[in-house]
Specification:
alpha+beta; six-stranded mixed β-sheet; three-stranded mixed β-sheet; 34% strand
């Protein structure tokens, strides 16, 4: 508030100046005012982000289940194509019904989302996640919000799995 009073005093002080001096000071005041308004928006950003994340946590998550392999030990993701909307909360349930371990690897996708949590067994993990390993019979839950639109590759990097067709695609749209 003190800054606003200071700017007001500057304007009042220089109102009575001759034409060119008034113009130069007006330009300077315009620049100062623009900078101050920009700082106000920057200062408000954390509060707005907190409100956004609070609203997202209240939003029910859309559930999607993806199987890594199947009971016949076929090397594939079922489904192998996901379409998501940016800004929407999802609960991705990953299952591995096969007798082989598999990975859900989509690093670029993981870099473009906000992960609320990953839960596997009785463990909850928070923070940046780039890859999940599911052993035979394992299940995991990944709750996240896509932030960045794009099309991202999904694969199981175990030797031979990608080559055998254990690949997929995740599309995030605005």
């Amino acid at each position: 508030m003190k800054i606003h009073k200071y700017l007001y005093q500057i304007v009042i002080t220089f109102v009575n100046l001759p034409g060119t001096a008034w113009l130069q000071i007006s330009r300077l005041n315009y620049v100062i005012l623009t900078l101050l308004l920009s700082l106000n928006f920057i200062a408000a950003t954390p509060a707005m982000a907190a409100n956004l994340s609070g609203d997202l946590l209240k939003q029910p998550a859309t559930e999607i289940t993806v199987s890594l392999g199947n009971a016949a030990n076929e090397l594939k993701f079922e489904p192998n194509h996901l379409e998501l909307l940016a800004g929407k909360r999802y609960q991705l349930r990953l299952t591995n019904p096969s007798q082989l371990k598999h990975y859900f690897t989509a690093k670029d996708f993981a870099d473009g989302i906000w992960t609320q949590k990953v839960e596997a067994g009785k463990v909850e993990i928070k923070g940046a996640i780039h890859e999940l390993e599911l052993k035979p019979g394992a299940e995991a839950e990944w709750v996240f919000v896509p932030l960045k639109s794009g099309t991202y590759g999904l694969r199981c990097p175990i030797s031979g799995h990608t080559e055998a067709g254990m690949i997929g695609e995740i599309a995030i749209k605005n």
